[in-house]
């Protein structure tokens, strides 16, 4: 979704899906066959097997994965890992689909969960069902969102790489200045909008909350918990129309209330950097975000409080946006080496290092139980709240048409944020566009 998050400052750029890349993914899946990246199968005569890893990380994430790779190579001298290729995770979809079409692709790539359904159309994506089902950490021990993000039908098409969730982070100083009590678990969306209104102070330029306003995935994925809580879904049973034709309108009413109260800062730029800057400057009371933002909040010396998302029903629900390690077939030796590396990387002893150093939540409950993670929770205010929300977190569907639904809903949210449409008008336009896309064979 770097210190902010190790990939990017927010999930928006994590999850941007471009139509051209999706079309290229379909073409790659239909036209590429056989092994392409290395005729020697990655192994010199009598030497180690070399595999190519496109990790997509920057800053602390890059340093963390490179340390882990170095430790793996010391323990597995028969396998070498080349981490020099690839691009940033935000552009990985385009890079991988182009590589598949050209017939020269990596052995492992960091693929966003919302991209996997399209990438997995390629016959070069390796089925990891046996590896994940028989690993030393039981498959059921991984958090449900992590399992769901890599499962397409009855096949496990990737390994979980990163786990997160959404909650509300509050600036205690802003609340105190406004004479408003901090929210508690079990609060409602009505209480959220009322609190945002009370925190807003035009004189000091203080906003109650913020919302990304570019229409990308950062704008959209904050809507799904509201829609799910109201009984809706992303795609209706049968797959030919959206599953939020009515619930979406009520969810958008929350956005309209914030706009009507002038209590929401609408970030006009991709990545939500401006929204977070306003919060870090002490001019925003609440921000809906994930654990990736905590290092920056701590670094800015903000006295903060974390609380689960509000609800309509009184039942907690949030969204998780897991990312994946996807394996591509460059021959038997390289596939085996890639599996060996990922099986090692996902085990609790390595996972906890990745989580602590790069900003993820534990992939499994075994990782969560390790002393190193407990220590991290003790020293990071609110981190335990994000972990607990995983118990009720859901993920977006692994459907190739999801990007079209997301784009249509993103346009609807922006129309309401900018006061150009009512929720009913915006949802009607969204349904027309998304349903047309859903009815195209896929």
From TrEMBL:
PANTHER family given in the database record: ABC TRANSPORTER SUBSTRATE-BINDING PROTEIN, ARABINOSE-BINDING PROTEIN-RELATED
InterPro entries from the UniProt entry: Bact_solute-bd_prot1, SBP, TAT_signal
Name of one Pfam family that matches: SBP_bac_1
This protein's name: ABC transporter substrate-binding protein
């Amino acid at each position: 979704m770097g210190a902010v998050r190790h990939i990017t400052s927010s999930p928006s750029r994590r999850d941007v899906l471009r139509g051209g890349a999706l079309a290229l993914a379909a073409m790659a899946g239909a036209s590429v066959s056989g092994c392409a990246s290395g005729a020697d199968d990655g192994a010199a005569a009598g030497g180690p097997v070399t595999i190519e890893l496109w990790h997509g990380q920057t800053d602390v994430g890059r340093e963390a994965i490179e340390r882990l790779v170095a430790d793996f190579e010391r323990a597995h001298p028969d396998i070498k890992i080349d981490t020099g290729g690839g691009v940033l995770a935000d552009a990985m979809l385009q890079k991988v689909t182009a590589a598949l079409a050209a017939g020269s692709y990596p052995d492992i790539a960091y693929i966003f969960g919302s991209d996997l359904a399209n990438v997995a159309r390629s016959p070069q994506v390796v089925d990891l069902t046996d590896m994940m089902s028989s690993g030393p950490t039981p498959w059921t021990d991984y958090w449900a969102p992590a399992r769901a993000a890599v499962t397409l039908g009855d096949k496990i098409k990737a390994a979980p790489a990163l786990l997160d969730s959404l909650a509300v982070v509050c600036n205690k100083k802003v609340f105190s200045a406004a004479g408003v009590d901090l929210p508690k678990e079990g609060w409602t969306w009505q209480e959220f909008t009322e609190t945002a209104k009370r925190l807003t102070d035009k004189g000091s330029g203080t906003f109650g909350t913020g919302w990304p306003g570019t229409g990308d995935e950062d704008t959209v994925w904050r809507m799904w918990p509201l829609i799910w809580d109201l009984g809706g879904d992303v795609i209706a049973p049968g797959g030919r129309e959206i599953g939020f034709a009515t619930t979406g309108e009520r969810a958008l009413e929350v956005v309209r209330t914030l706009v009507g109260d002038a209590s929401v800062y609408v970030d006009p730029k991709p990545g939500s950097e401006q929204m977070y800057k306003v919060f870090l400057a002490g001019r925003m009371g609440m921000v809906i975000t994930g654990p990736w933002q905590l290092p920056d909040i701590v670094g800015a010396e903000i006295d903060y409080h974390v609380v689960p998302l509000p609800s309509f029903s009184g039942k907690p629900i949030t969204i998780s946006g897991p990312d994946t390690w996807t394996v591509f077939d460059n021959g038997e030796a390289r596939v085996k080496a890639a599996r060996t590396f990922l099986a090692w990387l996902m085990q609790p002893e390595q996972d906890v290092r990745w989580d602590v150093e790069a900003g993820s939540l534990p992939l499994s409950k075994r990782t969560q139980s390790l002393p190193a993670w407990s220590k991290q929770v003790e020293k990071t205010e609110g981190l335990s709240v994000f972990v607990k929300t995983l118990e009720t977190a859901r993920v977006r569907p692994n459907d190739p048409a999801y990007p079209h639904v997301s784009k249509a809903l993103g346009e609807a949210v922006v129309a309401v944020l900018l006061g150009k449409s009512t929720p009913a008008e915006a949802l009607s336009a969204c349904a027309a566009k998304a349903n047309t896309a859903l009815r195209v064979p896929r």
